[in-house]
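Aim 2 progress. For rRNA small subunit methyltransferase I, the working sequence is reproduced below.
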Amino acid sequence: MSKLYIVPTPIGNLKDITFRAVEVLKDVDLILAEDTRTSGKLLKHFEISTHMQSHHMHNEHKTVENIIQKLKSGTTVALISDAGTPAISDPGFLLSRACIENGIEVDCLPGATAFVPALVNSGLPNDKFIFEGFTGKDAKHVYCF
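Predicted structure tokens for this construct:
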């Protein structure tokens, strides 16, 4: 049975990847990567030779249908982003939603996220919080946030 795995990748330190993430990336038939150059370094480091295909914000609207067909034909697929959990301010939402709509299982692995450590390190109360996305890269966007 085919399945889409959402696989978090390390944020800055390759040792932060989980054993299960490495195992899944070695076992799937196809890895969808936000940037194949960045992800290639991660895969090389962990000796993962699984075929990789580009899947990013500029092409995901065009590639989702083809990926769904691959999944329906029995291909197992892992989705990774450059750092952190795919679909959290990264490509992945469209594919995840399409899988759910087509009855394809989606398995999101636990792992690296940027906002949880930021929240914990902030010292702010964290029993309730709202994630509104990441701030922009320049001062104007941070101020508007």
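The chain has six helices and five strands. This observation will guide construct design in the next reporting period.
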